[in-house]
């Protein structure tokens, strides 16, 4: 009986705050946003998460509830869709897929598996469907690798599930392909110094959950330290001028701000386009549409809400726009304008030849 009282009380609170914890509630978007289903999980697959876009095709990684250290010996599926949500092809990768990005130089798909330990990388040629597997050496931070971004001719990877508290290992590394191995070098320490944006004070980090990564409109790395409920912004990564900022995350309630955990963050790159996000609990990829987006706006999937909302990079406050969710995660803005896309300074194939397996 006591459990029933707790459930009723929790449901009342969720109603007050306009959020819900499961699929029993309708998924709704605040005006002027429109919410539609992009794709349901194919039969036999579950837990859609990371999203990548190449041309007019969308790639979604399905975790299927597999162990995040790969110790169950199971494989994950990456499903390729057309923009209408129809399935084109399904790729199988060994382990639990988490990170998924398109290399803007080679147009190959990079898939990272096993974010807790025993990480591997699979690079996929989506034209020929050829896949090549790369292994990581021993991880200095003791865990696995979660996500990646391409910046210039360098690849940066989040070092997830650190073994130590405080985290004395790297939270971000740079990665190079060497034969069938991924060689890494530390870029951001888990206990690096930073400036806290809301208070404008110097702090020392202790990143216990480095997770998703993206680039902001300036080309700076934005790292989600998920369990720490904060974003870390790194400009000039790996250089003498590297600068690190911290943005604690929250949403407003009638009782004041409440800290919240988030997963992926996406930045609007054009007034024309739409957002895609995956909900692992609802086994669905959703589409958020609007007649015109404001370029530079940040959206984030707050799995701790659970909701999707706009993010104020000055205060760290997230304003919900889609509620009634279960476990939102992967997110991507799809630019449908006809203008040339800015690649944040990524070099050409000749300059970044070490990212192409044909050169090995």
Tell me the name of the CATH class.
Mainly Beta
> What's the CATH architecture?
6 Propeller
Name the beta content range.
over 45%
Strand order of the largest sheet: 7-8-9-10-14-13-12-11
Biggest β-sheet strands, sense, barrel: 8 strands, mixed
Number of strands: 29
- What is the radius of gyration? 20 Å
The CATH superfamily is identified as: TolB, C-terminal domain
- Distance N terminus to C terminus? 65 Å
Number of domains: 1
Quick structural overview:
The protein is mainly beta and 360 residues long.
Key terms for this structure?
single chain; 360 residues; mainly beta; Neuraminidase; eight-stranded mixed β-sheet; six-stranded mixed β-sheet; 1 helix; globular; disordered N terminus
SSE diagram, text form:
Elements: H1 2-17, E1 28-29, E2 34-40, E3 48-54, E4 57-62, E5 75-82, E6 87-94, E7 97-102, E8 109-113, E9 120-124, E10 131-136, E11 144-151, E12 154-160, E13 170-178, E14 181-189, E15 193-196, E16 201-204, E17 210-215, E18 221-225, E19 230-235, E20 243-248, E21 250-253, E22 256-259, E23 265-267, E24 273-279, E25 284-289, E26 298-302, E27 307-311, E28 318-323, E29 328-335
Parallel strand pairs: 10-14, 15-20
Antiparallel strand pairs: 1-28, 2-25, 3-4, 4-5, 5-6, 7-8, 8-9, 9-10, 11-12, 12-13, 13-14, 15-16, 17-18, 18-19, 19-20, 21-22, 23-26, 24-25, 24-29, 26-27, 27-28
Folded structure, characterized:
The chain is mainly beta and 360 residues long. It is built from 1 helix and 29 strands. Strand 21 and strand 22 form a beta hairpin. The N terminus is likely disordered.
């Amino acid at each position: 009986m006591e459990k029933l009282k707790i459930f009723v009380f929790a449901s009342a609170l969720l109603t007050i705050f306009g959020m819900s914890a499961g699929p029993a509630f309708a998924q709704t978007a605040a005006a002027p946003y429109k919410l539609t289903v992009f794709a349901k999980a194919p039969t036999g697959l579950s837990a859609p998460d990371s999203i990548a876009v190449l041309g007019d095709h969308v790639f979604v990684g399905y975790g299927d509830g597999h162990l995040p250290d790969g110790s169950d010996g199971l494989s994950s599926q990456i499903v390729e869709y057309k923009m209408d949500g129809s399935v084109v092809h399904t790729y199988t990768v060994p382990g639990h897929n988490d990170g998924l990005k398109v290399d803007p130089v080679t147009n190959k798909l990079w898939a990272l598996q096993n974010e807790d330990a025993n990480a591997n990388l699979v690079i996929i040629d989506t034209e020929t469907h050829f896949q090549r597997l790369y292994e990581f050496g021993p991880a200095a931070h003791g865990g696995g690798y979660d996500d990646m971004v391409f910046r210039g001719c360098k690849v940066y990877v989040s070092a997830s599930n650190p073994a130590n508290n405080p985290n004395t290992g790297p939270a971000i590394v740079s990665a190079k392909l060497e034969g069938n191995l991924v060689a890494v070098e530390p870029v951001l320490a888990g206990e690096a110094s930073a400036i806290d944006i809301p208070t404008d004070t110097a702090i020392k980090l202790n990143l216990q959950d480095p997770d998703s990564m993206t680039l902001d409109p300036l080309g700076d790395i934005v790292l989600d330290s998920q369990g720490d409920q904060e974003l870390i912004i790194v400009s000039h990564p790996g250089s003498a001028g590297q600068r690190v900022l911290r943005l604690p995350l929250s949403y407003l309630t009638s009782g004041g701000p409440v800290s919240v955990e988030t997963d992926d963050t996406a930045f609007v790159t054009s007034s024309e386009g739409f957002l895609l996000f995956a909900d692992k609990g609802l086994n669905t990829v959703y589409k958020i549409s609007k007649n015109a987006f404001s370029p530079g706006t940040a959206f984030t999937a707050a799995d701790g809400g659970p909701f999707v909302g706009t993010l104020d990079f000055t205060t760290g406050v997230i304003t919900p726009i889609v509620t009634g969710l279960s476990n939102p995660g992967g997110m991507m803005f799809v630019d449908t304008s006809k203008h040339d896309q800015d690649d944040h300074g990524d070099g050409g194939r000749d300059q970044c030849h070490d990212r192409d397996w044909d050169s090995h």
